Fold each of these.
Amino acid sequence: MSNTKVKLDEASNSSLTDQAYRQLEELIVTVQLKPGSVLSELALAAQLGIGRTPIREALHRLAREGLVVILPRRGILVSDINVQSQLRLIEVRRKIEEVMVAASAKRADSAERDRFRQIAKGMLEAGAAGDDMAFIRYDDQFNHLVAESCRNEYAAKAIGLMAGLSRRFWFVNNIQNADVELVARRHADVATHIADGDIDSAVAASDRLMDYILEVTRRSIDS
């Protein structure tokens, strides 16, 4: 087999793995795959129309991010939601996001700044409509754009281990404990300040967002 053919096969498999990861991550974050559910590679492959190898690789990636638990000889489970773990996660996430939004405000190129403005607009529209699913998708786009535009691969890898867990927790708890329009506005503020290149305002907006997320998390303990 030629080197070109090998590279094409690897690229194709990587693309399918990314596709499987994105679909599975959304199913878990939006609790269509519920915490504690037992997952089958074969069933997921049939459901998504993707081969078992990309599904397996996507599940291993999700395991690294804490969204699934792989138990040798026992199976794969969707991880439980743990409020105390979420509180500890927020402590770390706040500091990493301060670094990332400051770097994004400084380093984003013009196309990325335009995209931040588009995401901010979409978030505000989703919040005004109370559209949880639209917001959670814009939030995913926002997270990926910050990770890319900050130009810091170490911060991006660190936040990647937290983003899915954070988004799932918000999706599960927002109905009783959060205001989708307010959280969308807080996210949009961060995106807008990054687009404007205003480092101090971007960091301050990020802290206000994290303050609200912490408030919602604590409310979930009370409820």
Amino acid sequence: MAVPVIMPKQGQSVETCIITEWVKKKGDAVKKGDILYTYETDKASFEAEAEADGILIDVFYNDGDEVPVLTNVAAIGAAGESADAFRPGGAPAPVAQTEATAQPVAAVAESHNTSLKLKVSPRARVMAEKNGVDLSKVSGSGPNGRIVASDIEKSISSPAAAKAVVSAPVAQAQTASVITQSAYTPPAASALFTDNDFTVNKLSNIRKLIAKAMHESISNSAQLTHHMSADVRKLLALRAKVKAEADKGSNINITLNDMVCFAVIRALEKFPEVNSHFLGETTKTFKKVHLGLAVDTPRGLMVPSVQNVDDLSLKGLSNRLRDIADQCRKGSCAPEILSSSAASFTVSNLGNYGVEMFTPIINLPQAAILGVNTIVYRPAEIGNGAFGFIPVIGLSLTYDHRAIDGGQATLFLREIKNQIENFNETI
């Protein structure tokens, strides 16, 4: 008896997932536990396993399709068995997409009415409107011929794709005029380049999500960055002690970033207004510190949240930060903790890359983010009228000026500096 393959629900906030690749194809024999396909949420990737033995008798979605959770994506059964009972909406199997042939654009009013009757995903419709794509000229590759976002992307990138340009009516009684646009002609300057001079790479789904979040952050907040540096001689001394203990067989590995994060947590306890979310007409101030940590992974930047870090010792914080970073790099991080609303404050450290100063972008709705820079040596008084070069670390605080005043931000940044320069934790 055939059984459905269901798109799992990864967390309460996840409504759709994107199928990245079908490992098994229609007609393949599968055994329970075999990997059928891979899929991803906002930033985490997963593998879907077969829950029964049999034949993958049908597949309802293609690579790149965005699928609502708990929806049937395929069916497993015996050879020759029908999968129609499990097909979403009872639709026929998806037809392979064929490249649309450029045709003259119909009258604007008629085209508009026709597009409304087409089966189009909301995401594809918005994309088409933004790029002036005539939906009636697009072949849908989704279930039952539904037009999905990948169809619009293909139409935009195809030189033969015709786009309708819609003009506003001059008067209510006036018939909409027909405006056509020929296939895109590259500017003359493009003749300077050959196909061997460049490559065109499609953005990954994660890169698209990051780009959208960063653009929304800059567009929808009043961001300002203050820079300050802190003497890190005490941090370096403790780090040297940790390395010496490691040479003796200790498994403790507290990094400079762990120490900086520990200092940030202590500063947030003294300035709770920074440990907050700005929600337009209200501010949500947290009683506990939920620290977001920027982690660079092969799939892109991820910012998981570590909950209740103000309850942890320096050693405990180090272990938690290391564990969560490892989960992100392996792609096994829970989707819930990757949401920007799961953290109350974020730390992004580019010091290991030698960056001396940068302007981090806030993960809305958080009210601020701290950028940690590399250590440099600067001249300073070292006592008894003598001067020398001391190691200092750059600190870049970006804050939402709608939620935090400049004075508050400066005092908070100075408190982080004080916590670093007076660091007295032990291992």
Amino acid sequence: MFPGLVEYWKETSVNINKDLFEKALPALSDFGDRRLEVMDKNGVDFAVLSLSGPGVQIERDTKTAVRVSRKTNDLLAREIQKHPKRYGGFAHLAMQDPTIAAVELERCVRDLGFQGAMIDGQCNGAYLDDDRFSPFWERAAALRAPIYIHPANPPDKPYMYSGHPELWGPVWSWGVETANHALRILFGGVFDRYPQASVILGHMGEGLPFQLWRFDSRWKIANRARELSKRV
């Protein structure tokens, strides 16, 4: 976390216990002894750092999103340079403009030495299976830059969470939302069009690996929007 980005981050306060949420900011903002000590204690030699979401994914003004994302990447690069053997980075991108995001991804990977990028869920209602993101996927595939799809809130709150705040966030809804986003990318044919593209999912693959048999078997009877060149 960096100054100027906290208000974006606070959008997730509705998902987290208030007392714990307020304790997180100092830890997220530390790039020195505190973080390194925790890494050492847990046997972590190298950490790829990324901005805590949702960041500019929820910014309505495209120019602001582009400016802030570039500044954020420059700030992270400077922190990495202080501990290059301990830290790497994922780019923070303004997906409001996929072409600019593609250019910024390339700058971060080639010039700043980042490992890839992290996307915090949907961007103002748009998921990464949308055709508008083709320039971004083309560049990510060419760079062999993995794209981490990170949990975030959906553009609306489904009724199924009504009356159960414990389901809204890390316990359940974030995993459901992120898994659904990944399936949109897969079923949308992104990997058919860009076979060198790669996606990272955390949290044990957001539960998807446990359902591989179901995806492959039920795909055969699904009301499909398109065909895929390989099994799910």
Amino acid sequence: MQKIIILGGGGHAKVLIALIKIKGDFEIVGILDIKLEKGTKVLDIPVLGEDNILVDIFNDGVKMACIGVGGVKDNNMRSRLFDTTKNMGLEIPSLIHPNSFISRESVVTEGAQVMAGAIIQTDTFIDENSIINTGAIIEHDCAVGKHTHICPGVVIGGEVAIGDNSFIGAGATIIQGVKIGIDAFVAAGSVVTNNVLDNSKVMGVPAREIND
């Protein structure tokens, strides 16, 4: 059984710990999190310190890591941790809950995480380090970019393209054929019927662009 370290110790990390324990593919050696006190535990997994000891952990023989930061509206931290970890030479496996469904014709790439109850239909591509969270549905012929968070209960129609670093809030619906740009934000519960531009924020039923 390969050893793995988790970067981040919040709520998303707890879900990943449960997933990893159910799968039984990895031994979790610990958690790194700047906000948690060294020596404390998260679901019986010890906090070993901050990210600055990741090199030491790698040198001690731990070659696998997973990103335990979920990202709320902003996926930049998740993206930075992924790139830093990769540059150190650690592998970041995809983590797929056994109670999810992924079509054989679909692709889930490195570091992507698919949670319980998620459904990914045929000819869909999930790029690296993205989260398909609990109960999300992604229909046929979709593409989800890098470092993107599809939150719980999202429904995405067929032939939808979602750009890198985007955030699709809980319970949102994206109608078939829509294109969501890079660094886009879709508020929880929104119904997206038209394309969303790069760096845009939309909300409502139907969804309309909003300003901070």
